[in-house]
Amino acid sequence: MTSNLLAGNTIGKIYFADNLQVLKTFPDESVDLIYIDPPFNTGKVQERISIKAVRSEEGDRTGFQGRRYQSVVIGRKRFADMFDDYLAFLEPRLVEAYRILAPHGSLYFHVDYREVHYCKVLLDCIFGRQCFLNEIIWAYDYGGRPKDRWPAKHDNILLYAKNPGQHLFNADAIERIPYMAPGLVGPEKASRGKLPTDVWWHTIVPTNSAEKTGYPTQKPLGILRRIIQASSRPGAVVLDFFAGSGTTGMAALELGRRFILVDNNPEALAVMACRFDGIGGIEWCGFDPTPYRRGRF
Fold first, then answer.
1. What is the mean pLDDT of the chain?
2. pLDDT tens-digit profile of 231-288?
3. Which of 72, 99, 181, 289 is the most exposed place for a label (fewest CB within 10 A)?
């Protein structure tokens, strides 16, 4: 393994802190894989409202067999997604990410169409243009459709290797997808499926999904599983320093990797406390998860 950041039986470490200050404490070349989903700089306050329906004769909703229900707000999660100088905010954090990434490691940088072009230029300067491997398009289909332009229904994930040619890419470990025309490839290939391309069709986290946390920018486990399968081995250290709802850590646990998560939003840490409740071997730094665990939050 690349470091002793996670000693003994510790499988995960979660920091409530400014990520830049935490990153500066990590040794050189000490993590195997980095995935980050920084704020997209939309200029908006992101908000997710959690609602439950309660039986009421004066309710605002009609349910099964005509019964009336009242919508009750049970929680709001908010954060500001705006920066005066987005690249100046990102640059020192990405410089640290490059420093602590192992020689065989990769960085997956998740952003959207508003900032991806500027971010790629910045990453080219830090990693070197030759270290750019892919622009992955995560395509989905949900939300509103403006009438004055093509509806934006994708995110961008930029993939950089610390050392192209030495980087890890487990093609055989990646979950395969069905052929669109299986009759053209023969039964053996059709049953095996094919490797995904750089365009990933994957739903967002459904409203009624068991993995839904209510966090405004939660990403699907399926996206993180694919990244971790492809670019790390079992036992590797996976880092996400814009951790949000903790999806990177959950996917790492499922796949037998260790993880480090960092976020400075107390609502994100509260969500993670619920998600990781009952899982041993996790060290919390700067945050007490006890009051926020399931049944208490």
1. 86
2. 999 999 999 999 999 999 999 999 999 999 999 999 999 999 999 999 999 999 999 9
3. 181
Written as six digits, the tokens of 171 are: 């093609």
Q: What is the dihedral of CA 172, 174, 180, 183, to 10 degrees?
A: 30
Tell me the C-alpha distance between 49 and 267, whole Å.
13
Across the strands, what pairs with 61?
A: 69
Give the model's confidence band at 214: pLDDT under 50 very low, under 70 low, under 90 confident, else very high. Answer: confident
Q: What is the C-alpha R_g of the chain?
A: 21
Rounded CA separation 263/286 (Å): 11
CB 41 within 8 A of CB 86: yes
280 contact partners, CB below 8 Å, separation of at least 6: 9, 11
pLDDT digits (tens, 9 = 90+) for 171-212: 999 999 999 888 888 899 999 999 999 999 998 887 777 788
Q: How far apart are CA 280 and CA 1, in angstroms?
A: 21
Predicted model pTM: 0.83
